[in-house]
Amino acid sequence: MQLLSRSLVALSIAASTFGLVLKRDVTTILSDISNIGTQVTSLDNNINAFPDSGGSLAAALAIHNDAVALNSAVGTATTDTTSNGAFSEADGQSVLSAVEGIEDTILDTLSAIVAKHAAFAALPIGGIPALVLQDLKNLDASTTAFSGALIANAPADLVSEATEIQSTIGTAFDTAIAAYS
User: Of 155, 33, 172, nearest to 97 (Cα)?
Assistant: First the structure.
């Protein structure tokens, strides 16, 4: 009986420790959002630098690599946000402000990718528009998951503002995806 009690205590301690390891904090989430901002800026810069004609396959693949890195960053942020649980009012406001800080760059990036469709289609090696479309779909799915996690953890009074950001970015993704479909 004593062995069973010790085992249960050990299991309880292990489960508590495991739970603490998985829980994230808002500092981590803010760092994740900053990383997303860095990744979006890199992607935006590379898309805007891609020429309207005469672009290279290497430059197109650099854009793809940026999209993959951004998708990974958004996935990490989603995991961390989900693990965090509900935000306090102050933390929720900090997270919302951080997202608002990168919203314009996200929207610019999606607008720029639409404008570059003809340039990607004109590349001598086909398939780049299909690759861009897949990247857009992947980013849309991961962004939707991230915004859903943020909204689920947001204080009630910030949900409508967070939902509006999600809707604005979602509409921009819809436009970009339609351009490549």
Answer: 33
